[in-house]
Amino acid sequence: xxxxxxxxxxxxxxxxxxxxxxxxxxxxxxxxxxxxxxxxxxxxxxxxxxxxxxxxxxxxxxxxxxxxxxxxxxxxxxxxxxxxxxxxx
Amino acid sequence: xxxxxxxxxxxxxxxxxxxxxxxxxxxxxxxxxxxxxxxxxxxxxxxxxxxxxxxxxxxxxxxxxxxxxxxxxxxxxxxxxxxxxxxxxxxxxxxxxxxxxxxxxxxxxxxxxxxxxxxxxxxxxxxxxxxxxxxxxxxxxxxxxxxxxxxxxxxxxxxxxxxxxxxxxxxxxxxxxxxxxxxxxxxxxxxxxxxxxxxxxxxxxxxxxxxxxxxxxxxxxxxxxxxxxxxxxxxxxxxxxxxxxxxxxxxxxxxxxxxxxxxxxxxxxxxxxxxxxxxxxxxxxxxxxxxxxxxxxxxxxxxxxxxxxxxxxxxxxxxxxxxxxxxxxxxxx
Lengths: 89, 333
Known about the structure:
The complex is a heterodimer. Chain A is an alpha+beta fold. Chain A has 3 helices and 3 strands. Chain A has a single domain (about 5-90), classed as Arc Repressor Mutant, subunit A. Chain B is an alpha+beta fold. Chain B has 3 domains: about 1-90, no CATH class; about 90-120; about 125-320, no CATH class. Helix content of chain B is about 50%, strand content about 10%. In chain B, strands 3-6-9-7-8 form a 5-stranded mixed sheet. In chain B, strands 1-10-2 form a 3-stranded antiparallel sheet, with no helix packed on it. A two-stranded antiparallel ribbon of chain B has the order 4-5. The longest helix of chain B has 30 residues, at about 90-120. In chain B, about 25% of the residues are buried. The interface of A and B includes residues 26, 37 and 45 of A.
């Protein structure tokens, strides 16, 4: 998907989650700041299609690694919970 | 960790980060506006719609700042600056406030210092919870004969010692000594007083049995403070020559480790004892404690004076005058 600016990230999340996940600006910016300070994403300024200034965020190497780890972890937990629930039922 | 440094660093690059944030919000609003325009609104209406859908810009900024940096530090700096400015606008008020605070804090510290030393801290002596001060009828000094009777006949106390105020002068031993004469605060004590308090000499020895009898040599035990101040903490010179002679081979001329008390003979500067006390009462030993400009030292030596006796168990009942200080009447000259 490549580097995206914050509005696009929020819109994309909303779209993929079919409107279940809506990040307002108060959630979005702090999350981006946190990730950038942790070195997991990097923002660079460039132009949008409509020729507007925007900060485009891209995953760094460290960010990709973290993403893999966290995704794996999440799948494990989710799978575990799923198994526990289906076992119980 | 990395984030911590970034956040700290962000404290100093606040202006730049603030511009960046402004720019990002601006761009975000612009993109929103573009989208609204695409859906058919006029530019002005699209701008308004963008604003509306964006929400509260200032609160977003605030959240951004809090995540980005340690806002409380920035706020603190700002508050301190504000406080400083408003105080410097009203120097009179500031002065009065500062003086009031200084006096208040000073007085409290002084009072607490005394209360702490006298009331809160346990006495720095052995069995300090069993030490009591005995006063005649609860208020006055105790007569010599009473002391002796109590000491010999009462079973309420393990040991009982007596002390009297004593304020000698100390001067150099010969003409070449340029040190000024000094007035000291001291105590005369019975021989058993220091062992009762658990005092150990770091140099020399304490009073031996019988040395508090009439006719024995006049000996002194120095406090550590006096020894350090007046004699530079060295076992040398007139004072300690006598000390060495008196205690024999146990002392040599080498430097001694940090002592607490020093014992030495003081025969070359004879001290006239109050006749009332030397007459028949066994009180010819000295605990010399300096009375320097230091209030703490004074307090400490006073404490020694007030601590007179160890109580044996709970058999207090056999001494009806309990709770009174056993202290020899101070009759000077």
